[in-house]
């Protein structure tokens, strides 16, 4: 299936990022431009690899990769894994290229660099007459779904996991190794093995998104050094999923070094995506919450019947994450699926656009 990859490793090196007024390829139509996300908005794009069946299209996608990306792809094992990795790179390149609304940017010409912790960033080459947008992005993929999240000015981390993911080890043994004591306690209290497995995957997805948003990597921010919780807050006039009209569920992160302090400058969303995956989004708030007052509240971890109390921030009203979701096959089809059955909120303050 992927023999075309090895045949094209000798293609030209990546060219300098520039604007131009022609199609990226004679065989591919131009990308539809998209406006930059607004304040506290996340754009979320995803591809289902099983829906990309054309060998010709996959071959054209490979033309967008850098020589290094093609070489890495060539050495991967398994056609399905190679396909997912190819689509991940193409999704990032085409998604970023969409946001150059004043001119077209060739997805092939984009260059990337990594931070000291390995988080990828666009390596923009600034020109005298062109200023690159303040985009932040993050990618995640399984063999069955590839996703890219985009924000402006603030860091973002995303993770996607298959709902039917199975673990080789026992869940509690695995959780005791990687999760915080409070999270292990929560999972231990769940007697139903299937519910326990589902809650484990949700927790893992959220923790992964947080670590990626922080941008320090797992080694610098081990999973067992922080706790993910969900708390119920009053949201006058704001209708939210699976709660009463006056309440909403906000996800917060708590440091094990300072368990009394909830870190208020991160915004989370947990979604049921395409009916087959959990997707977690973590983005930094542009303005942290104000003062802190002491109020006892009940924390609910999704559908689990486990209750604990905590103090929560109340200086500013919590603002929902503005979320727009697209299902795409780059250059072929873009479908806005926000607010449909393909995007079902599970927890977090979310306003779908």
UniProtKB/TrEMBL annotation:
Molecular function GO terms recorded: holo-[acyl-carrier-protein] synthase activity; magnesium ion binding
Gene3D superfamilies xref list: 4'-phosphopantetheinyl transferase domain
Residue ranges of domain 4'-phosphopantetheinyl transferase N-terminal in the record: 58-147
One Gene Ontology term, aspect cellular component: cytosol
Coiled-coil residue spans: none
Record flagged with keyword Transferase: yes
Signal sequence annotation: none
Assigned EC number: 2.7.8.7
Entries under InterPro entries matching the protein: 4-PPantetheinyl_Trfase_dom, 4-PPantetheinyl_Trfase_dom_sf, AASDHPPT_N, P-Pant_transferase_sf
Source organism, top-level taxon: Eukaryota
Entry keywords, A to Z: Transferase
GO biological process: lysine biosynthetic process via aminoadipic acid
UniProt keyword Plastid, yes or no: no
Top-level class of the enzyme under EC nomenclature: transferase
Domain (4'-phosphopantetheinyl transferase): residue spans on this chain: 155-231
PANTHER family: 4'-PHOSPHOPANTETHEINYL TRANSFERASE SUPERFAMILY-RELATED, PHOSPHOPANTETHEINE TRANSFERASE
The name this protein goes by in its record: holo-[acyl-carrier-protein] synthase
Organism whose genome encodes this protein: Citrus clementina
